[in-house]
Amino acid sequence: MKAVCKETFLIEKCDDDGCTIPNKYSRIKEGSIWNVEEDLTRIIDGEIRLTRNTKKTFHWIEITKEHFEQYFETIISHNFDCSIAKRKGCNYCLKGKRIPSTGDKRWYINENKKEIQADDENISVETIKIAYCPVCGREL
Ligand SMILES: [Zn+2]
């Protein structure tokens, strides 16, 4: 799972043993993309562990769920791209991105008709009626 920082914030720096370094803060920048670690390894008992590799260093932070929700937005979960543009919708319901699926049919959300449609020229078009985007949850 990946998440993007949606608002720059400061967090206390800590060393690799998990001791906070007095008066040192790291700036977590808006737009930076972090891996949300699924394993339970924790150094400072944070609820959510985020890591990020840049050319120079490996960064990690641990934050509470509350802070995660405040400062981050999940963008990739279970292979879905869940990035939401200005909270108006995701790439599937707004931009017509193909929904990951098994089989040969290509599925897309048609917002105007409130349906998911299979776009296959050989077969008559199949649709599924929806009221909410199945990826980001937005009401259509
Ligand atoms: Zn959506």
In words, what does this structure look like?
The protein is mainly β. The protein folds into two domains: 2-75; 86-140, no CATH class. It has one helix and eleven strands; from the N terminus they run E-E-E-E-E-E-H-E-E-E-E-E. The strands form three sheets. A six-stranded antiparallel beta sheet has the order 6-5-4-1-7-8, with helices on one face. It has a three-stranded antiparallel beta sheet with strand order 9-10-11, with no helix packed on it. The chain has a two-stranded antiparallel ribbon with strand order 2-3. The protein is elongated and about 65 Å long. The mean pLDDT is 85. The structure holds zinc ion. Zinc ion (ZN) is lined by residues 89-90, 92-93, 133, 135-136, 138.
